[in-house]
């Protein structure tokens, strides 16, 4: 690592494990270590560091995930998933579903089905239109492919299946189905050579941030208009809590993988 003493600075800090890090950009220093007294500025890189220098660089994950699938009636495929690291289920792959949808049975196991603090959304089902809870799964894992903070809902009329694997999971990958070998192939987003953060490119991060930040801006305007209407205010507050949680979890992950600030959006 080279630095010109007359044109740049090297920032040095210790993380919570006592490990020393160096970087030539203040934006690459995690916010919690930018406090006065915790961050040291050097005029150049250390000549011979006693320990290996750990630069905060984007994580490159270019490996495709190959998932075994089971063919079922109607030309659909079923894959085994692990929800929140504890609940196993069989989901039908459905690229037409806007989000992950759980059956009533799985929703009850996760404790979200009767949670009155969650916002609800209208959902058209075979049994008619219902109000279904909207919530955030801590994680959803298929094989060695894992996505965190997955937006999901439930369907009380879903029979004979555990759930649908929709786009709130699948949008984190390029999805291909190998019908001959009954496999689902999840590839990294973007083109070969793209810089990836947590296996996702700049476009994915920007879209996620703007989706959550945009929803919060709309809810803020809706809350202003709903002043005095207690029922509507409570409903808006539940949705606001939901999207604040999604935005907060996205920000935590972005900080962990050192996503540049210019790719982030805020309400």
Task: Explain how this protein is built.
By secondary structure, the chain is α+β, with helices and mostly antiparallel strands. The chain has three domains: 6-56, no CATH class; 65-187, Acid Proteases (Cathepsin D, subunit A, domain 1); 202-263. Helix content is 23%, strand content 31%. The protein is built from four helices and 14 strands. The chain has helices at 104-110, 167-170, 202-225, 230-256; strands spanning 10-14, 20-23, 40-42, 65-68, 70-72, 76-83, 87-93, 100-103, 120-125, 128-142, 145-155, 163-165, 174-178, 183-187. The strands form three sheets. Strands 6-7-12-8-11-10 form a six-stranded mixed barrel. A three-stranded antiparallel beta sheet has the order 2-1-3, with no helix packed on it. A three-stranded antiparallel beta sheet has the order 4-14-13, with no helix packed on it. The two termini are 37 Å apart. Residues 1-8 and 52-59 have low confidence and may be disordered.
């Amino acid at each position: 690592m080279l630095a010109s003493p007359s044109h740049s600075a090297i920032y040095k800090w210790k993380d919570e494990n006592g490990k020393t890090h160096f970087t030539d950009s203040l934006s690459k220093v995690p916010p919690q270590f930018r406090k006065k007294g915790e961050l040291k500025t050097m005029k150049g890189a250390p000549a011979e560091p006693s320990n290996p220098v750990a630069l905060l660089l984007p994580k490159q994950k270019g490996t495709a995930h190959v998932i075994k699938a089971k063919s079922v009636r109607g030309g659909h495929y079923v894959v085994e998933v692990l929800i929140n690291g504890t609940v196993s289920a069989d989901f039908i792959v459905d690229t037409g579903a806007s989000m992950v949808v759980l059956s009533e049975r799985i929703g009850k196991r996760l404790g979200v089905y009767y949670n009155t603090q969650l916002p609800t959304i209208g959902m058209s089902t075979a049994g008619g239109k219902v109000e279904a809870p909207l919530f955030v799964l801590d994680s959803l894992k298929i094989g060695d492919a894992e996505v965190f903070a997955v937006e999901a809902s439930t369907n009380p009329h879903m029979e004979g299946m555990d759930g649908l694997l929709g786009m709130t999971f699948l949008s984190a990958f390029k999805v291909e189905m190998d019908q001959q070998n009954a496999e689902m192939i999840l590839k990294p987003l973007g083109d070969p050579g793209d810089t990836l953060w947590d296996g996702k490119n700049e476009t994915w991060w920007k879209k996620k941030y703007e989706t959550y930040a945009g929803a919060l801006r709309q809810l803020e305007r809706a809350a202003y208009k709903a002043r005095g209407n207690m029922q509507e205010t409570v409903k808006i507050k539940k949705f606001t809590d939901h999207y604040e949680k999604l935005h907060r979890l996205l920000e935590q992950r972005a900080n962990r993988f050192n996503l540049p600030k210019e790719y982030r959006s805020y309400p």
